[in-house]
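Why Adenosylhomocysteinase? Reviewers of the renewal asked for a concrete example.
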Amino acid sequence: MTEHDIKDQSLATGGRFRIDWAEQEMPVLRAIRERFEKEKPLKGLRVSACLHVTTETANLMRTLQAGGADVVLVASNPLSTQDDVAASLVVHDEIPVYAIKGEDDETYYKHLSAAIDHKPQITMDDGADLVSTIHKSRREALETIIGGTEETTTGVIRLKAMAKDGALEFPVIAVNDSDTKHLFDNRYGTGQSTIDGIVRATNILLAGRTLVVGGYGWCSRGIANRASGMGANVIVTEVNPMRALEAVMDGYRVMPMTEAAKVGDIFVTATGDIHVLDTHHFEVMKPGAIVANSGHFNVEINLKGLRKISDGDPKLVRPFVEEYSINGRPVYVLGEGRLINLAAAEGHPASVMDMSFANQALGAEFMMLNAETLKNQVYTIPADVDMEIARLKLEAMGVGIDKLTEEQETYLNQWQEGT
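Here is what the prediction returned.
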């Protein structure tokens, strides 16, 4: 049996059904897998992936394996693992998986160590915990690594900080910065799945409620848009004047969090920064305020500070809903402050992850072909690869587009002809 640390192998059959269901919605990744099976561009490549263990990720792992890669998968978040998916990958695909939904921090880092013990040549991260651990405490692993890929905004922020400080020891592809990732996954995927997680956890009606979104990056844009579409009154908080101005022009109220905290019914953070919701915000919230996070790490909500000002230990009043009491006034935290779309729901729909994971698969191939010429910096997947993923997605959706005529191409590539 393949080495692993998962909850229950008997869940494998149900996991396979769900993985196959997701695959139907992932035609771009399927096309890449068909090519990989023929060409084996990743033959012999050891890949350690630290990603959310979901049905969509399973299809990425199968694609890398089809390309000849030797893959190990660990969870990038303690609450995001789908245990039946982990079981299916171990039992049916013989892919080593180290992930258990609800694992404690000690187990989480033990699993990260298992990924590093694989002696990867390429790392595949969602939040940069794997890369960070290698640089901090497992530097012997740097001997074999040629490069990596990073899936999410939070991870890219960390990696760019490392590169700026001269601490990054190998090149990394910022998958998150591809247009076919952040314009679609972050906006439409996060928008829908975040609302899905909040509603599944609470079963509340959004219409007529005031929902506060922390930040107005692509993820927050999607959350604000979907919440507004369901009848919520949306407030946006921002530190960036340009994004704040855009939120105003998009029709949302914009104000500091200190003001929004007094009037919001539901709060969602999605910034990638720490303590977006802090103790002084909790102290002025309405009784029954609901707090959730859709940024990668639970640090966006100051949970330690919340515990300190609470009357006692929180009570679990529903699955993924903890009630804190501040002077007798309840405040509800969803999913332990972790990614609510994966803690309480199933994450992004497969059709949008199709493009994100197409970027991951092609990013690994690009890194294998070009690692020797790349510096220890953060790179974006080439624009032509990004454009090809968009073309394949449109084709799979049955959508046709125009093509420039020779006359139009000539006009766009000259300067002499004016009005």
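The chain has a mean pLDDT of 96. This is the kind of structural detail the renewal will allow us to pursue systematically.
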